[in-house]
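We close this part of the discussion by returning to an individual protein. The encoding preserves chain order, so positions in sequence and tokens coincide. The sequence in question and its structure tokens are set out directly beneath this paragraph:

===
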Amino acid sequence: MSTLCEKTIETVKASVPFLSENALKLTCHFYQRMFKENPEVKVFFNPAHQVSGSQQAALAGAVCSFAENIETPEKLAAAVELIGNKHASLGVKAEHYPVVGKHLLGAIDDLLDPAPPEILEAWGEAYGFLADVLIGREKELYKEMAWEGFKEFEVAQIVEESEVIRSFYLKAADGAEAPASKPGQYVTLRLPDGNGSTTMRNYSLSSHGCSELLRISVKRESPQHADQPQGYASNYLHDSVKAGDRLELGAPCGEFYLDVEAHEKSGIPVLLLSGGVGVTPMLAMLQASAGRTFPVTFVQGAMNAAQHAFSEEVAKLADANANVIKHVRYSAPAEGDMPDSEGLFDEAFLSEFITTETEVYFCGPKPMMAHVLGALESMGHPQEKVHYEFFGPAEELKKCPMH
């Protein structure tokens, strides 16, 4: 892998103050340019994140982070792993990178009107460096995946898990066994978008270890505000997909997973914490770790019993395995509900389940995740022992009002 020359590093770092003030303006213009001139790449982006502005904000944060850490690229390893897995799940290839690079440099040039040649040259070299790193990692991931691209699966069964969550059991249309996966990983669904094209979404596998079927569990997403559309993909799955239908799936992927064998050797305790539909990757982790020698605490949050999915499944696993403890917490219990506790996942509550050794894995709605992340930081829990999955631009968590 090539290295960056000192002049390039100095020039990029000198641009950090300008980027900090103008990064969002830059990325908004970048996406407008790219989608206008190369509309074929729009399929890789979630339209909802574009409408909300979160994708533009996330890229702005990533550009600034890269510029700030250009001398120490090893600090970007986690980001490279996250982006590499996301790109591999969507089918991003080496030939797509020049398109992005062209429009990123074009946006910089337009914003500076025009940019000095040394700025464009430095950022061109820096982008090429980062692209090479990502392309290299993605090539490795493609080799590890059960298949490249998309494969047909048949919907074998659909199960109502709660008022808003529905599970889809999927079997390979060619009769092959279900692909191996790591507990916590996701698959990508490619769905018709209603406009003659397709759209892609990632869904965590909510079960682990079955050689015949994959299971995804999808919450029907309703608009949070009157001017927002409902979630297209989730509502399509709930309203239009029936048993016997076929869906296109990408192979299991993702850097967020529980390394069961490592915990079996170390004996380090695990806390699996979830809110709402964020329970899905935690279920796969729970199934993979039930019956092992290391202790597992499964804490599930929901608004109330009507929205509490998989209660019987989790209870059976806890009852049957001595290494599993479960706890149910409702934030807005209805009359007659009987959770183990009520309230949010605040510091006082989390401290009951965490020691300095505990590896914490969590997933859920953005406000809940921001709240948990902030609580763990306030508690001084070691950062390397905090793991989470967030289907959206991760920078949103740090800007959420509850964090």
Observations:
- The CA atoms of residues 209 and 256 lie 17 Å apart.
